[in-house]
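Sample A.
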Amino acid sequence: MATRYSKDELIDLALEEIAPIDGTKDACHEDIVGALAAIERVSNSFDGLSSPGEFKKRINQFIKSLKKTRQLLAQFHPAQQNLIFRGVPVVIGPVDPTRLFGDLDRMIATCEFTAKHLRSGHGAKPWNSVKFICTLCASNLLSKFSPTRLSTTKGGHFTTLASLLYEIVSGEEGRDLSAYCENPDRVEPLYVAKIGGARRR
């Protein structure tokens, strides 16, 4: 769907909503662009997946594969590990087993945390992860640059800015994000998405 304005025009509208304090307009513009990049990364996280539930299923499969890989590597004697990890000189180079095991452990822990906090409720209304992150970014931008107090009033700067950010990344005009802005303190950036389980206060 075509938008009313170009991306640059929408960013200018976002700047107007924030009304950054004197001397911070350029920094605010830079942060808006950075926020949009972060939102687009979240938007791309579910490309090709029908739901966060499907993503959770796949990430759990990935966790099992990582654990199996770590277990198999650990079964080799250090001398055998040296033969496996020494690499091809110049072309590939050696692999540090200690670092590899540490990286595997961190990846497993990160994936387990992500899977734990991806919630899905049967029959529950979907909680749009992109709108969710737009709300977080709008809150952060206003808190950092705006001289006015953050308000969750429908049609206020907060809800309007969140909707503008969402329009830029989605191309969908006039989406009401007030339900996502009701309690900005609830926004949890480590949650990739929620379906159900997200209580509205």
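Sample B, a different protein:
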Amino acid sequence: MAGNRKHGFMRGNRAGRNGVGSPKGFYCEVCERQHGASVDRTKFNGQMMCDRQYYKLKEAEFSAQKSQQITLI
């Protein structure tokens, strides 16, 4: 048996293809564009951004901290 309607299992070829439960796209406030559902996202400092922009921001932050440590030594 392909599924059980009493318990809410979907039957047939449409199972898993109707978009129920799949993540939606989002608007990246840093890129200022709409991203698809497959793009990872992070909420940082109250802004929703894609992980690409988040990693760029963190890398710049780490390099600034590292340059401060070098000048103190």
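Observation for Sample B: Residues 22-72 form one domain.
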